[in-house]
Amino acid sequence: MKILSVVGARPQFIKEAVVGEQLRRYGAHEILVHTGQHYDVNMSDVFFRYLELKKPDYNLSVGSGTHAYQTGMSMIRIEEVAIKEKPDIIVVYGDTNATVAGALVGAKLKIPVAHVEAGLRQKPKDMPEEINRVVTDHTSKFLFCPTKKAIDNLKLEGISKGVYFAGDVMYDLFLRLKDSIDDQKVLEKYGLQRESYILTTVHRDFNTDNEERLRNILTALGEISYVIPVVFPMHPRTKKVINQKNLWNLLGKTRVIDPVPYHELVALLANSLKVVTDSGGVQKEAYFAGVSAIVLMPDTGWIELIEHGWNVLVDADKDHLIEKALNHVPPSSMPKELYGDGKAGVKIARILVGED
Questions:
Q1: Which of 34, 38, 203, 263 is catalytic?
Q2: Pairing relation of β-strands 230-233 and 198-201?
Q3: % of the chain with per-residue pLDDT over 70
Q4: What is the pTM of this model?
Q5: What's domain 184-327's architecture?
């Protein structure tokens, strides 16, 4: 069986590290396509090296640009590869432009599409990631859901065939790596002490491209930084906007660093007091590590963490963000196996190669 896997951004590299390994273990011939959406060394190359990902068979070098440009160019180039390679299945991950591009190519060429991390839904409904999720789910034959809530979401849209509760592949990787990371070495590298800082990430376009929202978030981080250190690995998109708008003064004593390799992010996250983020992946990784997240969104695909009080939605409300970042106390316990049993990659691979 020949499987064409499409990746383009950091969360997809992480998921591919798990699923791709299992696909090859179960005998699939995997063709890995990297759209080149993330081309910064710390955002892309270093993940391939550290996670020991299979070297991409194709790098499409799409790069940055508008959503239409990234999606369109990815479709054109993925289609060329798919016509040449004639895969039995196209696997896509998550909610990026690379995801929807791969799904649409599969649908147009009548190649079955497998969506890893299917069924997530959140507001606002016009956010690019939400549009990508919905379109991908409605064009996929195999829908691998990370939570039971995701299955319910698909049922509400009339999708019940080909739906599987696989669990979250990021949980697989977290369990695999957590004991191999030298936390102390990473903390020493950045001059930090355990539970003495707040880690933050900001990259969603509805935050970076809306000056009022971004000002509120940066101002809040700046005020928090005078109470407790704030460490901010800054996404290139966010840095570009802050430079253009000259907003650096809002950050106060916030410590801005370059994007970090995945293992360093896990170490920084696991040893932080709290996390402030608009990243879907970081929200979950915080939970895996026993750290609560203050979420810079009006809604989240990982709503179960909000419902149980582990994470908190603050949107871009400056005062709410400050109050929760400094004072929120998560519950002492959470339901087990919200995200499966750490064997999502195995389940997905077995289904795709026909062993389950």
A1: 203
A2: parallel
A3: 96
A4: 0.88
A5: 3-Layer(aba) Sandwich (3.40)
